[in-house]
Amino acid sequence: MATETKNMDRRWLVIVGTAMVQLGVGTFYAWSIFNTPILRMFHQIVLDKNGQAAAQQPHLGAVSLIFSIGALALALSTIFVARLVRRFGVRRVTIGAGLMFGLSTLVISTIHQASQLWMFYLFAGVVLGAADGIAYMATLSNAIKWYPEKKGLISGIAIAFYGLGSFVFKFIDAAFLGNDVVKNLPTAFIGWGMSAMALILVGALLLRDAPDVAPANQAGTIKNHEFTTVEMLRTPQAYLLFLALFTISLSVFMTGIATNLGTT
User: How would you label 68-102 residue by residue, b for 16+ Cβ within 10 Å and e otherwise?
Assistant: First the structure.
């Protein structure tokens, strides 16, 4: 009983750790700042008559697809988070996701040719996106369980830091890129990846698995049924959500080219 009381008193540390992790994984949404440097590295920038980057870039869609794949992988990976957390615990799962995040940025920092675009799709899209989604959902759901009486507040804090990550790292990534964006692109990938990974790993050290507490009502204690992944896939609602996810992923394509809109 004394240990449980101590854990409840120190649960604010879990929120600090969650905020740090969310800040780290939220950096993925600043990805669009890398689109033009990648096009320049691949020598696929189309110039206008003044020698400036043209408003219409025919190869931009292929590069922006990296982020769309990542967003889809992020969403789909959350399906398996609950099972992973139950088996390994939130701290181990988050550490694993943080390592995946950092290692994927190290891999993409070695890419230099347009023929290797598939590596961006795999490592910056599938692997990094999945790591992002796992860390995001594992920490968010765990934090909410620690504060069942303040679900809205805790969700708001976590998502705020998730959004803050993309805002802050837009400037950090730009600083890493500097003036010579092609030469500095590998350094920018590494700097971004290691910074985000550090936030995720340090935040993970503050995490603890929330206790399982059944909600109570006037009739007594009632335990909610937690659907397994297999049970969830047997419901029609799951496929309606997948359809919604698919349409959202298509719209996320526009987020992937956000910094390129309206530029010449």
Answer: bbbbbbbbbbbbebbebbeeebbbbbbbbbbebbb
**Which tokens belong to 162?**
């998730």
Residues of the chain with pLDDT under 50: 1-2, 214-222, 261-264
Q: What is the pLDDT of residue 5?
A: 53
CA 15 to mean position of chain CA atoms:
18
Q: Whose CA is closest to 32, among 249, 189, 260?
A: 260
**pLDDT for position 27:** 95
CATH, domain range 13-39+61-211+228-256: 1.20.1250.20
Q: Fill in the DSSP letter of residue 55.
A: S
Q: Is 249 helix (H, G, I), strand (E, B) or coil?
A: helix
pTM to 2 decimals?
0.81
DSSP string across 111-172: --SGGGHHHIIIIIIIIHHHHHHHHHHHHHHHHHHH-GGGHHHHHHHHHHHHHHHHHHHHHH
Query: CB count, 10 Å around CB of 175?
Result: 12
